[in-house]
Design brief:
- By secondary structure, the protein is α/β, with parallel strands linked by helices.
- It folds into three domains: 157 residues, Rossmann fold (3-Layer(aba) Sandwich), CATH 3.40.50; 162 residues, Dihydrodipicolinate Reductase, domain 2, CATH 3.30.360.10; 85 residues, ACT domain (Alpha-Beta Plaits, 2-Layer Sandwich).
- Helix content is 37%, strand content 25%.
- Strands 7, 8, 9, 10, 11, 12, 13, 14, 15, 16 and 17 form an eleven-stranded mixed beta sheet that branches. It has a six-stranded parallel beta sheet with strand order 3-2-1-4-5-6, sandwiched between helices.
- α14 runs antiparallel to α15.
- The radius of gyration is 24 Å and the shape is elongated.
- The N and C termini lie far apart (53 Å).
- It binds L-homoserine.
- L-homoserine (HSE) binds next to α8.
Length: 442
Amino acid sequence: MMGQHRRKANGAVRIGLLGCGTIGGGVARHLLMQRHVLSRHVGCPLQLVRVAEIDLARARREGVPEELLTTDARAVVRDPEIDIVVELIGGTGVARQLVMEAMRHGKHIVTANKALLAKSGLRLHAVAQRHGVDLFYEASVGGGIPIIKSLREGFVANKIHSVYGIVNGTCNYILTRMAADRLEFDVALKEAMAQGYAEADPSLDIEGHDARHKIGILASIAFGQWIPQEAIHVEGIMRVTALDIQCAHELGYVIKFLAIAKAEEGGLHARVHPTLLPAHTMLANVNGVYNAIEVNGTPIGTTLFYGRGAGRDATTSAVIADIVDVARNVRLASHERLPTFTFTTRPRPLKPMSEVWSKYYLRCTTVDRPGVIAAISRELGSRNIGLTSVLLHETARGAYSTILFMTHRAREADVQAALRAINRLPVVKAKTVLLRVEPSEE
Ligand code: HSE
């Protein structure tokens, strides 16, 4: 069945909401309380007609009228009266089935489900295209920051070179607290969880899976070709220590958890890892649970988006914006007015991490003996890895030395090979810490 662009008897656009939890509750409240304003924005009545939620008491607490409530989500996605299904259940199981079924029944989709998009985006877009329906997901990345709309519409004149930034509020909160108040990782994590931004399973945050989902979505839109999750290199923040935060500070840098996607000669790459940023840059000064995303393109140059990347209010803002967009398309029977996704006809190759070029920070723990720096530099130099600075911490007699090396731009595979060789040197007494440095262009 193709998209249901016929107008209802009263000309209304009708919404079915799946999930009335933290975000769903915020969206339901906003739709109910602001329906007149929103209807004016759309140009016809915008009506919330069904709310599917297993916990009906929770939905009632959000002020959802009794006659809208149901526990049967499947009935909502099949309801011929509904134009737009808003999926706020989350997860990739039931949510995926319901979204697929809704599209097959001609419903347009608005969702905040980053995991669903990241894992099944290609398939979802194909089904949306086949059934002539919209698939919008602004709230999946950057909370209330309109980054997806900007990439899709605002930057349509541009060739995008890179999209990168802080897309996980929980990790940014942890790193901020570790740096500012010298908190241990575990203490900062507990605090971050109390902020209410962390995933139900916070390992999704600290191991980088959440950021990987988000950069996969952003990169796919920015570069016009789908970036599979398996192609994205991920390192979490669990191994970032107070010592490295301190060492970075001494060198004039801040450690941030960055999600990075770049289009370079030889192909595209995307990665997620803790990163040293010069302390004076704007991204380095994004603190707490805030998100910030930098987009570089031609002819636009550099732009920076900053705001709350999660939470009920910010996410509600993004979901409502999508609903209004889709509702306008329904009213005008013109969902193709804005293509939801442009698949490029000539996909660029995806670079493996080993072929990525970056600048690096290495922290070596060695015996305090003449010739140690020379031995380590030899391993780097023989692999064409040049140094921009070396810092030796003052060492008490008999104690191990901490030596920091900052490199020029080098190839990841070469740096990893050098790291293995350095760790084998008899003078090196602990595993060398490697962190990447941005901006990595010279
Ligand atoms: N756990 C995520 C974060 C929530 O901390 O950013 C927003 O996607």
